[in-house]
Amino acid sequence: MRKPIIAGNWKMNGTITEATILVEELKSLLGTEELPCDVVLCPPFTTLATVLDLVDETLIGVGAQNMDYHESGAFTGEVSPAMITEVGAQYVILGHSERREYYGETDAAVNAKIKAAFQYDLTPIVCVGESLEQREANHTKAWIEGQLEGAFKDIPKEEAMETVIAYEPIWAIGTGKTATADQAEEVCRDIRKKMAHLYDVETAEAIRIQYGGSVKGSNAKELLSEPNIDGALVGGASLIAADFKAIIDGTK
């Protein structure tokens, strides 16, 4: 059985003060009981250390929202995998559609970042997804398969098995539109089939696949009950403790 994983992508939101309030509220809501899933918070770089301190001695994991694949050097404004590991984070989001659209990230760059992440013991959350135009043109499957081929080029099986893949239809991110459970399941099933083709069935069955795109407490249970959806990458709802807790509860 794959353990569900719920990750909150705060994006460019949250000062240190705001992050402290949010995490303390979430901790209060979650209590000290064992969680029904892996929970990961991905705050901005400036609040990583604070959030890590706040969740110390809890079961909540922490991840960065991005990283460079270089170890160091003249890359102004970037953060290296060594820096993320040293601060104590365990996860990193790679290839988010906003990074691809606004900053020109390519599948080759995502591939390099995945390799760098594993060198520094970070678990990558690798994002894939199609635009509304691609979906309407019936190109979803081919587009996402291409993203997977590029992202996982020369990634060994042992590392692929540890990767989390997040399916985020671009047309559903921050729009209020959500893929139906059937639509999300269809694509997540295709992702698993593609990973079986790239590797083998054992690898594909081990990989956790999240759905992301306007996930909230009211639709989480239906989405997370699908056999190939192993969690959610949550945007706006992760900034409200009660809403994020409701999504976590959807894994029960």
Automatic annotation (TrEMBL):
Its main location: cytoplasm. The active site is at 96 (electrophile), 168 (proton acceptor). CDD domains: TIM. GO terms for molecular function: triose-phosphate isomerase activity. Its EC number is 5.3.1.1. It is an enzyme of class 5 (isomerase). InterPro entries: Aldolase_TIM (IPR013785), TIM_sf (IPR035990), TrioseP_Isoase_bac/euk (IPR022896), Triosephosphate_isomerase (IPR000652), Triosephosphate_isomerase_AS (IPR020861). Keywords: Cytoplasm, Gluconeogenesis, Glycolysis, Isomerase. PROSITE patterns: TIM_1, TIM_2. It catalyses: D-glyceraldehyde 3-phosphate = dihydroxyacetone phosphate. Gene3D superfamilies: Aldolase class I. It is found in: Cytoplasm. Pathway: Carbohydrate biosynthesis; gluconeogenesis; Carbohydrate degradation; glycolysis; D-glyceraldehyde 3-phosphate from glycerone phosphate: step 1/1. It holds the Pfam family TIM. Substrate binds at residues 9-11, 174, 214, 235-236. Involved in the gluconeogenesis. Catalyzes stereospecifically the conversion of dihydroxyacetone phosphate (DHAP) to D-glyceraldehyde-3-phosphate (G3P). Homodimer. PANTHER family: TRIOSEPHOSPHATE ISOMERASE (PTHR21139). NCBIfam families: tim. Belongs to the triosephosphate isomerase family. This is Triosephosphate isomerase. The gene is tpiA.
